[in-house]
Amino acid sequence: MHEQPADWHGVPPPTPDADLDISRWREYADIITDSLWLLGARDRSGPHSAEYHGNFVPQIPNQIVRRFTTRGETVLDLFSGMGTTLIECRRLGRHSLGVELNPVVATRSRELAAQAGDLHTVRAGVLAGDSSSAEVALEVRETLLRHGDGYADCVLLHPPYHDIIRFSPDPRDLSNCTSHPEFLEAFRRVVRNARDLLRPGRHLALVIGDRYAGGEWVPLGFECMQVCREEGLVLKAINVKDMQGNERGKGKANNLWRYRALKSGTYVFRHEYVMVFHNAG
Fold first, then answer.
1. Lowest-confidence range among 45-49, 124-128, 181-185?
2. Cα-Cα-Cα-Cα dihedral sign, residues 33, 35, 39, 42
3. Residue 14 within a domain
């Protein structure tokens, strides 16, 4: 068995309350309901860290968690990385559980989540393991059972965009899949685990982008979307998010990338997707 999530035990659940009162919908001007997400630069407040390349911006889990959960509920992130979702959940009064393949990164994410402060008396834990495996899915279920009925109230997925960034030498890492079909099959196993761990009637968010391969635009986002649909999740939204601050991926040579795009008849990636699904059960 893997190390149990830090801070997961001995914390009483707060009383849930409906954070979004639809009768007062005009008060929620900062909750995005349009399909174009112009989030700007990443939120660097508090313990949020950009030290791990590939982290998504904190504004994404902030929007998803506030829109689709209430305080005291539990959010599961199966690619939790440096703990972005956990930090936001701790700030917002939601319990959170992450799964991270790299044990060093998992340890660091626990430290960062702890720095967010126990503002609402909530748990934040991380399991080190492979989110596509049945073993880890069982551990997640057991952890959720210790404080409830074994289900998460919301799931976030932010997988590697296949081999654009190699995150580790671990052969189980989706960024090390040797072919596109292998990546999609590994991602399918994660989706099955996510679907089974997500409470029926609740929501899953997939954050994903596309990639170039062999001079061809590969619609990775839509292929991953289709995997989710084939596994029984109902598509509710395809939101397009602007991509900023990607200097670590492309460097600061914007003119060079523009030149290459004009020369090759391609376009420079400036967006990714935040897709929302409903678990109809």
1. 45-49
2. positive
3. no
Share of the chain above pLDDT 90, in %: 61
Specify the pairing of strand 198-208 against strand 271-279: antiparallel
The verdict on residue 5 lying in a domain is no
Here the CATH number for the domain that contains residue 190 is 3.40.50.150
Is 13 part of any domain? Answer: no
pTM passes above 0.85: yes
Q: Any idea what the Cα angle at residue 57 is, between residues 154 and 106, rounded to 5°?
A: 70
Full residue range of the structural domain in which residue 260 is found: 32-279
Residue 109 has pLDDT above 50, yes or no: yes
* Number of domains comprising the chain: 1
What does the alpha-carbon distance between residue 176 and residue 158 come to, in Å, rounded to a whole number? 16
Per-residue confidence (pLDDT) for residue 201, from 0 to 100: 97
With a pLDDT cut of 70, the percent of the chain lying above it is: 87
Q: Is residue 20 part of a domain?
A: no
Q: What is the 3-state secondary structure (H, E, C) of the chain?
A: CCCCCCCCCCCCCCCCCCCCCHHHHHHCCCCCCCCEECCCCCCCCCCCCCCCCCCCCCHHHHHHHHHHCCCCCEEEECCCCCCHHHHHHHHHCCEEEEEECCHHHHHHHHHHHHHCCCCCCCCEEEEECCCCCHHHHHHHHHHHHCCCCCCEEEEEECCCCCCCCCCCCCCCCHHHCCCHHHHHHHHHHHHHHHHHHEEEEEEEEEEECCEEECCEEECHHHHHHHHHHHCCEEEEEEEEEECCCCHHHHCCCHHHHHHHHHHHCCCCCCEEEEEEEEECC
